[in-house]
Specification:
2 copies of one chain form a homodimer. Chain A is built from 20 helices and 11 strands. In chain A, strand 8 (about 235) and strand 9 (about 240-245) form a beta hairpin. In chain A, about 60% of the residues are buried. Chain A has about 600 residues and is an alpha+beta fold. Helices cover about 55% and strands about 10% of the residues of chain A. In chain A, helix 1 (about 10-20) packs antiparallel against helix 2, helix 1 (about 10-20) packs across helix 10 (about 340-375) and helix 10 crosses helix 18 (about 515-545). In chain A, strands 3, 4, 5, 6, 7, 10 and 11 form a 7-stranded mixed β-sheet that branches. A two-stranded antiparallel sheet of chain A has the order 1-2. A two-stranded antiparallel sheet of chain A has the order 8-9. Chains A and B meet through helix 9, helix 10, helix 11, helix 12 and helix 13 of A and helix 9, helix 10, helix 11, helix 12 and helix 13 of B.
């Protein structure tokens, strides 16, 4: 049976020692006092370990089933969902007006990581509801907000996002789902949507589908896509669920992982829908939520890696196999624990330094989202928009790799389902794919985000790194050597790659796009390098101030040193690849593959 | 439904244009004429595509089941097994004396790749039989050989290898299974073995288990382990299967992949066993087959990557999504095929350059095994022993990564089981784990193989690379720039890493072991770089000689250029990591993970 315990101390360290959230001027941040966030995190950790985590294996083994048009979730999900509902967790960062708690988004991210680590498939029912609520909040009329938000924020009704169709995922301009305007101002929505997470289930009284569709006669392609609210049950006059709408589940997909979440084929057959936002501006409406949604997927990468890591550590301490070559460590036992072996250490340090760095990156990104939304800070908005594909792509890729490394620590026991390590990899895998496959993230980063406002935000990022290095160059000789120097070098590599794109992407855009994936990873490493430098500094300050738990802070510094020494130099390889341009990548005729 | 077609032309290119097998002096190689190997490969390809491949999904979906102590394989396996049996494929490289065809091992590898690509779980029944036969051939008495080999080589009886126990896998010295000597010279074997591939099934008349166990009173630890033949049915006087032996299936493991193979918990309860080879020399007996067994697992990595790649290419050509940024390629369609996009190209080129380079590495390694066995060439034996952990570890790691990349090309369609791309990753995953987890391969490489005979074989490898570079430095300016220069640089990195280990491993062996995994990968890249340089040269020679299929050879050169430019520079990153030594890897107390 896998273990999971929420790393509340690590989260607190980032919130308070590194990001110093209560010192920020962002509205609502003054509430984030240490004791308060500590209490929230402890409570979230408790639910994660005690309620959600025990159902993770159950969900994987049972999956969801469709019987006579009704979707049933795995044993125990319904009861657990009630508990999460009762806790008001979905509305943590939603307006009080609609029953939310109006907390900053950063706290939602902190909590979300635990929930997701404990049971990714389960928490997606709630996560999709949160996303759909955010869309209605941003684009709905007052009447729509009043009608849907209180029920969705309480999770009495859940939400979904319907984008993909069988023949199009990334290229939504090819969409075929139609929305015919009706005389009463509503629409009749018809078409098929696939891969709809939490598409239907037995845990809520209604499901509010947000559906992208084309209004006939509108502009061609992506510019003619509109967003609609299509409830599973249309509402009675009094707002209660009434007649069944023309939407049904065609199938539940058999997937590699996240079995506990019902991924549905949804069939719309003249279903009554209501325009959300402006006609033909559906993609814009989706885009406004994209930073949050994609950050949430990057978070899944970190969360699965964290959960898998915790189990790998337990196993490595417990399993006796072989002897420490530098001297027996467990003389009374038949062998030493796995954790004495350097190659096991390498794997665990890769994992540890990634999840802790990734967590900091997620929380930093969340503070930028809060600044963008709560402060209307356009610089923060621009920066987080630039970082979003990195957060999504890099953290989900690395997160997946780390679950594979954690599984590997178990040897053959990792391959059988009994220990749950296979599930972590199978569940983590989806984060690299949905919400824009990672290749599309790389394209978004290099093909779109880099050049926004003449490169203003990427310059701001470099400035930020540069300033950090300049301000902290005299902290200590060791800090300069272990943290500042590698960060500078990596940032220089990233700048060189940007420069290469500028100089060579003009002649041939494929020179830039052939290096986009490498660039995304390179950027991710620099971000984690920056996070580790900040954490290293904060930990050193805590030690200098005589913090009682010295081992905690010393471990932070040692883990950061590992990242800077062993992981960050990957930027050089990425740069070398980027600088080879498109020639070798595009050399073959398609027929010769 | 996934596709698979055996890449016979590629195999022929390696056998005849690169390795020039018929020119080799190794006994039996003169028979490997182009037309002959072509006929064998075509036939093997046909069985792979038509018989084995269609059952791959079936095996994954149905799995094996245990009912009343009897193991049933998936629908169709039994009939397919008959066909493979009838074809005499298991005995391809076995002595004629026992019904084999006495072909070189290299041909077995070439065929094995196709079978494994078509249906890894299925072909393991046969592969384990081959392995067990090889052990009996190497260590059995004449009577044992006469009794078991004809039946096993014909696959009327299948074989298994029983090493792992619940509490020990890598560290077999901890083994608890006992073999009590009996008056008639036989033994009573008792204990539990786990993770026994093809442990039992319904496709053969008998299962011949090779079981590692300890004879009471023998030396402690690994030096007291002996190898036993334990048939499922003990044999009658006339050699036919008789009474059921004291061995039974405790369970079939639920695994991440290779569902079609019955991975069994085997319980031995005073089962009658016969010593194979010398008492207490069981590990040595296992080791003699290890190079072949491990090469076979590396082959699984390549084979799954090849199969997944073929499907990714099909999908990338077929799926219309987005437009080529350099100009529309499919003006009559609603969008261009995925394959126009540089990031898809990057992924496909990673896959293509790996599988083709990996195939060459496997076949080269197999010729070394042939030289070792058929020529009694100790230099070849030493070199292939050095390369074995690289072949196993690097090719299975990379092979797995490539299946993940192939799956990614499918976007969401890769995550659902329908397209079969998930199965390739789930099946490929095991190769990183069994037959010595890859961390153990790295340990074997750096902790044992490097230093054998004073580093004689690693020096021989460097010499081989150096000579190739020297001999081919004037081939053409382009060849020197695209192939020789990167190969030289990578080999230099590998030498620097070896040097680092020598200089720093003495003070502290952890300085070497902390870099062992990086070293294994670095070594793998250099080997594939060498393979690509050899293939590039052979392709250029074919073009210069006016070969009719110019596109084939030009594609080889272009693919090689990609590997040299984009993949091979990874050696620099590995070296940088290695040179940081053990400090950051071993910094934490175990309690602080």
């Amino acid at each position: 049976m896998p273990v999971y315990s929420a790393p509340t101390k690590d989260t607190q360290f980032i919130l308070h020692d590194v990001l110093k959230v209560t010192e920020a001027s962002t509205p609502g941040y003054d509430e984030l006092e240490k004791a308060f966030t500590g209490a929230i995190l402890e409570e979230a950790g408790k639910i994660s370990s005690e309620v959600l985590h025990p159902l993770n294996t159950v969900g994987d083994q049972e999956g969801c089933r469709l019987e006579n048009g009704v979707v049933y979730t795995p044993t125990g999900f319904k009861e657990a969902f009630e508990q999460v509902k009762d806790g008001g967790w979905t509305g943590l960062d939603m307006p009080e007006q609609y029953g939310g708690q109006n907390m900053p988004y950063v706290l939602g991210t902190a909590v979300g990581e635990y929930f997701s680590a404990a049971n990714q498939a389960f928490v997606m029912y709630q996560g999709l509801t949160h996303g759909a609520s955010a869309a209605i909040l941003a684009h709905g009329t007052d009447a729509q907000k009043d009608t849907y938000l209180p029920k969705m924020i309480s999770c009495e009704w859940t939400g979904t996002m319907n984008l993909t169709e069988p023949h199009c995922g990334t290229d939504l301009g090819l969409m075929r789902t139609k929305a015919e305007p009706q005389e009463d101002g509503s629409y009749k929505v018809s078409g098929q949507k696939i891969f709809i997470s939490a598409g239907d289930h037995d845990m809520s009284d209604n499901v509010i589908h947000l559906v992208l569709a084309k209004i006939p006669g509108g502009p061609d392609g992506i510019k003619g896509v509109s967003l609609f609210i299509v409830p599973k049950f249309t509402l009675n006059e009094d707002g209660t669920p009434g007649a069944r709408n023309g939407v049904s589940v065609g199938n539940i997909e058999k997937k590699m992982g996240i079995h506990g979440n019902s991924t549905c084929v949804m069939n719309y057959d003249e279903a009554t829908g209501y325009l959300l936002g402006d006609a033909h501006k559906g993609m814009r409406a989706m885009f406004t939520m994209m930073n949050e949604a994609r950050l949430g997927v990057g978070m899944q990468g970190v969360s699965q890696a964290e959960a898998a890591y915790q189990n790998a550590v337990e196993y490595a301490k417990d399993r006796l196999q072989g002897r420490d070559v530098t001297g027996v460590k467990n003389p009374d036992g038949p062998a030493d624990p796995l954790i004495v072996h350097p190659d096991i250490r390498r794997s665990l340090m890769d994992q540890k330094s990634f999840v802790e760095g990734g967590r900091a990156f997620l929380l930093w990104g969340s503070t930028l989202i809060d600044q963008a939304h709560r402060d209307k800070n356009t610089d923060a908005d621009g920066l987080v928009s630039l970082l979003t594909p990195v957060i999504k792509g890099f953290l989900s890729d690395e997160g997946y790799d780390m679950t594979v490394k954690a599984q590997q620590v178990f040897g053959g026991h990792g391959y059988i389902e009994e220990h749950g390590m296979s599930q972590y990899t199978r569940d983590a895998r989806i984060a690299q794919i949905y919400e824009g496959a990672n290749g599309v993230q790389a394209l978004d980063l290099v093909g779109r985000k880099l050049a926004v406002d003449g490169g203003k935000y990427v310059m701001a990022f470099f400035e930020l790194v540069k300033n950090f290095c300049k301000e902290n160059t005299d902290l200590s000789e060791d800090f300069t050597k272990s943290f500042i120097a590698p960060l500078k070098a990596a940032s220089k590599d990233l700048q060189a790659a940007s420069m290469y794109f500028m100089q060579n992407g003009m002649k041939n855009p494929n020179n830039a796009l052939s290096g986009s994936y490498d660039f995304m990873h390179m950027f991710g490493h620099v971000c984690l390098g920056l996070m580790w430098a900040q954490m290293g500094k904060a930990a050193q300050e805590a030690l200098d101030a005589g913090a009682s738990d010295a081992a905690f802070y010393e471990t932070k510094i040692a883990t950061g040193r590992y990242y800077m020494a062993r992981r960050l130099p990957a930027t050089k390889l990425h740069l070398a690849r980027i600088e080879t341009g498109a020639d070798t990548v595009m050399a073959l005729d398609a027929a010769n593959f």
